[in-house]
Amino acid sequence: MATTGFTSLAENISLVTNSSSVMTPPQASTVQVALSYLLIAMIAVAMLGVGCGVDYRKVLEHFKKPSGILIGFFSQFLFMPLIAFAMAKIFQMTDSQVIILLIVGSCPGGTTSNIVTYWVDGDIDLSITMTFVSSTLGLGMMPLLLFIYSQGFDENLSVPFQTIGITIASLVVPVFIGMFIRHKFPQKYPIILKVLTVFGIISIIAVASASIAVYSGVFVLTTSQTVCAVLFPLIGMGLGYGFSSLVSCYRPLRLHHFQRRTIAIETGVQNAQLATSIVQLSDFPLRVKGAMLPFPIVYLGAQLGWIVVGLLAFRVYKSKFHRITPGDQSSSAEDDKVREEKLKEGSGCGNPNPAYDEIEPPTYEDITEQRHNEITVL
């Protein structure tokens, strides 16, 4: 039965490909082709920058004790697609709405999550490692998840598997190239990273402007899509933090609170740019793309909105409790001793004084090996 469903999907993709050439005006088609190539370049450059930021030694450190990676993996590739599937069923969405919701729900994390993690004093190394792992595994997980969940809808539901595979591949290869550049040119990679970042920002602005010009006349956004787009990142962040906290009740897998925040961000801040790219690179008719593209755009806006709210709340919370990190130069030796004792007492579930859970080393270079091992055990 699964084989029949896959065959039906493949036939429908072929039908969509043939129909798009009839329904799309020649001038619009030319712009879309140019936009598609620009998108591929933009994605490649962005992920090349991610690769330059990956230190394989830190990745190996997390793989030695992979509780954070595993929890993040299940949060991203189990909970988020399942939530998307449930939303599509609850709101009884149309085929195009279902496809884009499932695509967004199955997307790996992106560079935005790394930046936000830095702002909320999260585990930067864990964030970059999770982005690297999810982007790499996404090559197989995204098509698999979309195939599985599409079986719960009409057999004629068209999923652009080929486009997804090509787009994800354009993510994975540049990441490894970026890692090679960092390893080969350790003194020059920061400059390369800055250049790639500037180029990426310019590309995003160019692609966004071109997309609005091409698709603005056919944009369609329903109330149910808006509700899902606004709630989706919040639910993802909540589940990511909740699931990591639940697992942390088991002491051998316990994660520090700044690591749980990292997992929450990686779960809720999906790569909306990737979802937009998949739609634009696919062979759907122009009117179908117009019905799909607004969702990831609104979702991206909702992400930014919740991020701002979360940052403000975190800053107020941190200011109220006067958090001091172990790397703070102004802290006294007595304060360091007290913090070390509190770290040894434990953190997470059942801690009578959870305020001390916020003692968080920013990077591996800023703490000793002994403190790193203590935090990992906790």
UniProtKB/TrEMBL annotation:
<feature type="compositionally biased region" description="Basic and acidic residues">
    <location>
        <begin position="334"/>
        <end position="345"/>
    </location>
</feature>
<feature type="transmembrane region" description="Helical">
    <location>
        <begin position="193"/>
        <end position="218"/>
    </location>
</feature>
<feature type="transmembrane region" description="Helical">
    <location>
        <begin position="97"/>
        <end position="120"/>
    </location>
</feature>
<comment type="similarity">
    <text>Belongs to the bile acid:sodium symporter (BASS) (TC 2.A.28) family.</text>
</comment>
<feature type="transmembrane region" description="Helical">
    <location>
        <begin position="127"/>
        <end position="149"/>
    </location>
</feature>
<feature type="transmembrane region" description="Helical">
    <location>
        <begin position="34"/>
        <end position="56"/>
    </location>
</feature>
<dbReference type="InterPro" id="IPR038770">
    <property type="entry name" value="Na+/solute_symporter_sf"/>
</dbReference>
<feature type="transmembrane region" description="Helical">
    <location>
        <begin position="230"/>
        <end position="250"/>
    </location>
</feature>
<keyword id="KW-0812">Transmembrane</keyword>
<feature type="transmembrane region" description="Helical">
    <location>
        <begin position="293"/>
        <end position="314"/>
    </location>
</feature>
<feature type="region of interest" description="Disordered">
    <location>
        <begin position="325"/>
        <end position="378"/>
    </location>
</feature>
<protein>
    <submittedName>
        <fullName>Uncharacterized protein</fullName>
    </submittedName>
</protein>
<keyword id="KW-0472">Membrane</keyword>
<keyword id="KW-0813">Transport</keyword>
<feature type="transmembrane region" description="Helical">
    <location>
        <begin position="68"/>
        <end position="91"/>
    </location>
</feature>
<feature type="transmembrane region" description="Helical">
    <location>
        <begin position="161"/>
        <end position="181"/>
    </location>
</feature>
<dbReference type="InterPro" id="IPR004710">
    <property type="entry name" value="Bilac:Na_transpt"/>
</dbReference>
<dbReference type="InterPro" id="IPR002657">
    <property type="entry name" value="BilAc:Na_symport/Acr3"/>
</dbReference>
<dbReference type="Pfam" id="PF01758">
    <property type="entry name" value="SBF"/>
</dbReference>
<keyword id="KW-0769">Symport</keyword>
<keyword id="KW-1133">Transmembrane helix</keyword>
<feature type="compositionally biased region" description="Basic and acidic residues">
    <location>
        <begin position="368"/>
        <end position="378"/>
    </location>
</feature>
